[in-house]
Design a protein that fits this description.
Blueprint: E1 3-9, H1 13-24, E2 29-32, H2 73-87, E3 92-93, E4 100-104, E5 107-112, E6 115-124, E7 146-149, E8 164-167, H3 171-180, E9 186-190, H4 205-217, H5 226-229, H6 238-242, E10 248-250, E11 254-256, E12 259-261, E13 267-269, E14 272-275, E15 312-313, E16 316-321, H7 330-348
Parallel strand pairs: 1-2, 1-6, 2-3, 6-16, 7-14, 8-9, 8-14, 9-10
Antiparallel strand pairs: 4-5, 5-6, 11-12, 12-13, 15-16
Helix pairs in contact: 1-7
This protein binds flavin-adenine dinucleotide.
Flavin-adenine dinucleotide binds next to helix 1 and helix 7.
């Protein structure tokens, strides 16, 4: 039976960074990826998202990200990832959708259909895209119009002449309103009053990441980074702003066949609901390892270096999560990928005796 030193699950930014560094460090590994081709979640983003629209994609190790411009992000980034995999001869195998990971005789066993991979360590880089989140509201199943989640946004033209309700207070909702409002009527609802970025006096990226890290340390499910950074309008959203798209209403109470009803009894007719309500970490395949806290998060051991380099799981430090919680961004995925590869290398070294890597602290104090 062959046992790898490491298996990486997922070939998005975080998984590619991990694989690059594992290769550099001489760690024998394989990368298992569920998609048909390279690109991670980017290959599934909507067609109108151009490189000018994305917030910013960090460079991969030794490979600058595609330039800003009008090229579609779902073309430019998959092309870049594909050439990266080839250039650095990363051992990506696809399509392989991992169904579960178990423990057996001191090893971790990765299962996909009838295939199994035995490994000493695991780096999980499965992102969030395959787990869209739609909150439950009474009556949702009775709605006779169309409902879409961000993951299936069909583009603004699809909504022409329909009344569209956009739900959610993050960057995707702001962007959809920017596209849809110029072609039709929209209503925007959010759970909380949106916090506009220019209202935050001292925008401190590190403090934001730290806030996410505190939740992860406490074993709570991570919130999206935009829930703590606030949101901003870009030049391409000015037209929608002039048309009143960003006048926000509180959440409705229930859904009816032809619209939504608020607690005060007021109602709006809508033809379509666009749920820009985010994603959750795709960790279902790790369930047999019992890593989840009762609150639904996974506790990570804090790193002594940087909050984005906390990757080892408290309950089983052979397992590392990258692109999770404070590292759920392209720059975070890069840093976490490197940190996980280094920690795995240390864990495998004969002198470590298979114990916890030395760069981790034992309590949950944020350094
Ligand atoms: P992904 O890119 O999602 O890659 C995960 C990979 O894991 C996929 O290839 C998938 O096939 C694979 N996988 C999943 N489950 C399994 C399984 N069970 N078995 C095998 N393989 C599996 N971040 C930024 O820094 N800048 C931005 O501009 C930005 N824009 C964003 C826009 C949107 C709409 C969203 C939702 C997020 C955005 N983000 C952005 C956050 C962004 O998702 C991450 O930065 C980055 O794409 C995540 O990379 P990742 O490697 O963690 O995951």
């Amino acid at each position: 039976m062959q046992a790898y030193d490491s298996v990486v699950i997922g070939a998005g930014q975080a998984g590619l960074s991990a694989s690059f560094h594992l290769r550099r460090l001489g760690v024998d590994h394989v990368v298992l990826d569920a998609d048909q081709g390279p690109g991670g979640a980017w290959q599934h983003r909507w067609d109108s998202l151009t490189m000018d629209d994305v917030h910013g994609v960090a460079d991969l190790p030794e490979a600058p990200a595609p330039a800003r411009g009008t090229e579609r992000a779902n073309v430019a980034i998959p092309d870049w990832f594909g050439s990266y995999e080839r250039r650095f001869e990363l051992p990506v195998v696809r399509p392989v959708r991992v169904e579960q990971v178990t423990r057996e005789d001191g090893l971790l066993v990765v299962h996909a259909g009838t295939d199994v991979w035995h490994t000493r360590t695991l780096i999980n880089a499965t992102g969030t895209w395959s787990r869209p989140f739609v909150p439950r509201y009474p009556g949702a199943e009775t709605f006779s119009g169309e409902q879409f989640h961000t993951a299936r946004y069909p583009g603004a033209e699809h909504f022409r002449d329909k009344r569209v309700l956009v739900v959610g207070g993050g960057a995707s909702a702001v962007q959809f309103l920017g596209e849809v409002r110029p072609v039709t009527e929209t209503i925007w609802v959010t759970r909380q009053e949106p916090i506009w970025r220019d209202e935050i006096s001292e925008f401190d990226g590190r403090a934001v990441i730290r806030a996410v890290q505190e939740r992860v340390c406490a074993g709570l499910p991570p919130r999206s980074v935009s829930s703590v950074t606030g949101i901003g309008l870009r030049p391409q959203e000015r037209r929608a702003q002039e048309l009143g798209a960003y006048h926000r209403r509180p959440m409705f109470e229930r859904i009816e066949p032809d619209g939504v009803v608020w607690a005060d009894g007021s109602r709006e007719h809508v033809d379509a609901i666009l749920w820009a309500t985010g994603f959750r970490a795709a960790l279902g395949h790790l369930r047999p390892l019992h890593l989840l806290t009762p609150q639904g998060g996974v506790r990570l051991v804090p790193s002594s270096q940087d909050v984005q380099t906390a990757t080892a799981v408290v309950e089983d430090p052979r397992v590392h999560l990258v692109g999770y919680g404070p590292s759920a961004s392209t720059i975070g995925g890069n840093r976490a990928g490197r940190a996980a590869a280094v920690a795995v290398r240390q864990l495998l070294s004969p002198t470590s005796g298979g114990s916890q890597p030395p760069n981790i602290l034992v309590d949950c104090t944020i350094p």
